[in-house]
Amino acid sequence: MKKPVKRVLIALTSVVAVIAVGLAATTVGNAVATAVEQDRIEPYGQKVMVDGHEMNVSITGDGPEDIVLLPGFGTASPVLDFQPLVDDLAKDHRVIVVEPFGYGLSDGTDRARTTDNIVTETHDALQQLGIDDYVLMGHSIAGIYGIQFANRYPDEVRAFVGIDSSVPGQPGSDTELPVGLFGAAKKLGLVRLIASFRGTGYDDAVYPAQTQEQIALLTNRNTLSPTYLNAMSLLSANFEDALGTSFPEDLPLLLFVVANNPTYPTWLGLHEEQAAAVDDGTVVPIDGEHYLHHAHAQQIVDDFRSWERTRMPSAE
C-alpha cells in the first residue's frame, strides 16, 4: 500500500474512532443525566386518568369564567411556558392549562397522536374536572386542534383565541420530517448536548432562574421522546386532515398573529381570511416572534379583556 493512501486510511480510522468514543460518551452521559434529573423535577398541577394514563392539568384562579389553554407543538412544559399569561388572566378568570400526553408532567402514550385522539383526550380530562363552558385559547398547532374542538363540542366552546395559531393549508405543513434521525440524535445524547449550548430560549426578564431550570429539565426529558416523535411523524397528516375545515361561523374568534413573518409572507393574510370566515372575527397583528406570549403577554391579556367585554358581555 502506498504511504499517502495508508496515511489517509489511518487518519480516517482515527476520526471514526474519535467520533465513536464521543458518541458513546454522550449516550452514556445522557442516560445517566436523565435518571438523575428525574428527581430534580418539581411537581405542579394535578393528575387525572385518561385512557389509562395520567394527564397533568393546572387550574389557577377562581373567576366566574373559564379559559382553557392548549400548547404549541413540542412545548416541554405548557404550565411553565404559559405562566406569564396565567398569572394575569387568573386575576379575574379560572385558567386551566392542559398538558397533553408527552408534554410537561403528563405520561407518554402509545396511542397515535392524531388530532382526533388529542382532542378526545383533552376533552376527557376537562370532563373529569367538570369544565364544560370555556374560552379555548391556544398557541401554534392548537389552532388545528381548536377547529375540531369547537366543531365537536359547540355547546362548550364559547370562543377561540389564537396565539400565532396554525391554520389549515399553511405553508410548509406538508413537510415530512426526519423522525428516525431525530430519534437517533436523542438516544445518542446529541439533543442534550445541543441544548446545553443553546439554553432554554426563555427570557430572563420574564421567566425566573428556577423556572428556566425546570423548563430545561423537562426539555431534556420530553423533547424527542417516543410520544413526541409519534406526534412529529403525524404532523403533516393532521394538517392534511384539517384541509377544508374551519371554525363554526357563529364562534367568536380573536387571533393574535405575528405581523411580519419573513418565512411565510402570507401568514397574516391567512389569519385574516380565517377571521373573515366567521360572523365575529378579529385579528391583532403583533410585532414579535412565534411565541408571542413570552414577550407580549401583557398586550395579549389587555386586548383579550377589552375584546371579551365588547364581544362577550356575559363574561363580565
From TrEMBL:
The keyword Plastid does not apply. InterPro entries: AB_hydrolase_1 (IPR000073), AB_hydrolase_fold (IPR029058), AB_hydrolase_sf (IPR050266). The keyword Secreted does not apply. One of its GO terms (molecular function) is hydrolase activity. Keywords: Hydrolase, Signal. Residues 1-24 form the signal peptide. GO terms for cellular component: membrane. Residues 67-165 form the AB hydrolase-1 domain. This is Putative aminoacrylate hydrolase RutD. It comes from Microbacterium oxydans. The gene is rutD_4.
